Amino acid sequence: MALAKVVLLLLTISEAARLKVWSDDGDSSCAWAKIDLNGTGWQCDTIKAFTGGMQGNTRLVKLTPPSGSPFKAVLKEMNSNQNAMGFHSLENERRIAEHLIQHNFTGAPMYYMDFKVQSKYMKYKNSDTMTMAEKDNCDYKRQTAGVCELNPEWDACNGHRGNLDTTKEIPRSKMSREGLECPDRTILMMEFLDGYADLPHLHKAASFRTENGFTREVRAAALFSAHDGLMKIGVSHCDYNPGNAMFSVQDAGKAKIIDFGLARLNDYPVGACRGNLEDIGTPGFLWLALYRGGTNELEWGRNDKRAGSLSLSSGGQFQTPSGQILQPFSRMKGRYSGKGGMKSWNQETRQNWPGIVGYANYLLYLYDSESDGGEDGALVPPPSMPEVMAPTASPTLPPTPSRPVFAPARPVQSPPAHPQDKVTSTDMAVVNTRELAQLIKTGSEIEYEGVPGVVEYPQIKGQAITFNFQPSDGSTKRFGLRVFWSSNRGKLKASL
User: Fold this and answer.
1) Phi, psi of 212, rounded to the nearest 5 degrees
2) CA 316 → CA 244, 302, 363, distances in Å?
3) Beta bridge partners of 493
4) How many beta carbons lie within 10 A of that of residue 327, not counting itself?
5) pLDDT tens for each residue of 306-326
6) How far apart are CA 478 and CA 203, in angstroms?
7) According to DSSP H, which parts of 277-373 are helical?
């Protein structure tokens, strides 16, 4: 497990203002990443370079849309000449990001997948659509036929040498001597998690050092809920360490999982990974490296007999805002609502994972309903208390509508509206902000280029909303439409 990996340092606005603009080519552009912005109207400026990590070129950038306000993002770049292993890892992370977007997963940063490298830096003609297995097979066998057909621009840039071996780092002297100017290259643009900190930096925050036990267990609950969401869509992270989860400094109920370079799909069971790096199981690095804060084999070996130096938990029983006395995850024993194992919870296992998630949901409910933290809106119906943790007199909790355990950045898709709920054009609003775009869901009634209809599978990608459109007049469905809200002057309207 790459515990030496240095992760993104969070910057306050005042710190960002003091940063010296930096890039390889001596100006503030993002030319170092070979990003293709021609004809898009977008502008990319480098603010700061980060250091360390297998995916070496990771920088904080400022993105400016064709019309609208600039915002900060994180840009990762890797190429096969300088670090073949890191390049493969970033390719994998890009494919995992596409999977997360497809399943509307909100427990990770937003990814802006429309940004790509210039064409001559893509080795295969079908690089965009190839699976990792297909790409690996073409690379290792140096094939050029079928799905392995080379991109003519890439081949020409490298002197028409055919399928070069891009599975090993190429020495700089050889690159220069043989004119290998266009390595296989990829980039990934993602949301900058302003106001979040990884576990080491969270421990340094003054506010965290004064947090009570309830708040710290809520942070763990948010993390466990996010991972449970990953498992439900078939993603194994496979690289949990103290730097690969981000926590909102101000809102304990928010956690994001990052760095999917080693992640896997279709693992069986989900989270099994390879070797000794299981997400959950024996050992489970989600538990050992993040909740218990172990940073090395000595601290992992203690399990819950003694917490690691970066433990997320305070380790002792705690009191909720309403006065309930509860135990931390690390002291849970027995069953949870008839599910989970009979073993102590102080060694997380697959058998008791359902109980851990159930207790996490309960803590998040208490956080939303009893404290000033959490998000506004409908609350989760309260889960049952674990048998061994139930207070002598359970509080009466009001019935509430259901919502997902993690409040999504985008609304949950719902069925199309009933015919009697149809709205007229005068009820439509021009979708010209991200907030309005996030309100659009499957079944929403819209007007696209003056034609009324219904939206299917909307997604936020960068500064645009993409969707399929079924016109109400029965004409042909249109797929993959995209509207940039900052420049929308009435092209897209919606009933919100």
Assistant:
1) -80, 170
2) 25, 17, 15
3) 430, 447
4) 18
5) 778 899 988 888 999 989 888
6) 50
7) 285, 297-301, 353-370
